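Hi team, as promised in this morning's meeting, here are the two structures we talked about. I've kept the exact order from the run log so nobody has to guess. The first one is mostly here for context; it's the second one we should focus on when we meet again. Sequence first, then the predicted structure tokens.
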Amino acid sequence: MTTVTANQDGVLNLDVAKPPRRFRLSPRIVGSYAVLLFLTVLYLGPLLMLVNTSFMTTREFNRNATALPSSLNFSNFEEAWEEANFAQYIANSIFYAATATIVYVLTAVFLAFPVARGYIRGGNLVLTLFVIALFLPPALIPQFQLVLNLGLYNTRTGYIMLLVTNPVGIIIL
């Protein structure tokens, strides 16, 4: 289709619709997609099998583990929820995440504000030390020994202290 338009100077522009560009399948593209499809099936296959068997009864699974379930059976989820005490796990996760986040943000704000505003003498040095700390790998063994020596091993306080001692929040703020 052709359209004719005039610009402000009165010059006519003739716009001719260009034919659509053809997509060519080269062996390289086909091979790339074949490899990607294979890797997708390789990674997602076990996950799909897990989801499939989670809706089966034990009898259906023993009869044919690869077949589709005859009906959606949620009793496996109920049994796992009750036997594994997932409610306690979720409560622990919420407690640890909320407590560590609140303490982390408060400490980061109270340290980052004076450093950013220049109220601390040598604030640039402090900021540089925090940036350098990002590049150092966490020393897990000394951290574990410190928590152990302080008597905080296997306590909520010890776990939260390990979550809070991270310099990223100070640098971001």
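And here is the second protein, the one for discussion:
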Amino acid sequence: VNLQHFPARASDEFEAKRPPTFPPTFLYSLSWEDPREDDKYLQINPDDTVLTLTSGGCNALDLVYQGAGQVVSVDINPAQSYLLELKRAAVIRLSFEDVWKMFGDGIHPKFDELLRKEISPFLSQGTANF
């Protein structure tokens, strides 16, 4: 699957409309749905357009890998959309080992360098600021 065919841009326009009392931080960073269970019932194919909550972004990326023709991912919290855009760029630009260290282990000794050199040039301004 070529993730470059699935654009992911956090909406700066949506961010501007965010209610002022809504914190620009994570409310939750993952969901407990099991994509393998979803696959049994959804039977995703290239003709499908799937709407999903962004959450931590993993389910949206999984739907792409399962072969959905289009994935529309929404979340009231812009931080979740920024995280999805960051994950997408990392998957496209970095090795599996680097992606795993960043998002699986939750720590990468060269995160700042990778972000600056390999990922940031491909992010929307809102995500880069995040």
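Starting points for discussion:
Residues 3-129 form one domain.
The two ends are 27 Å apart (CA to CA).
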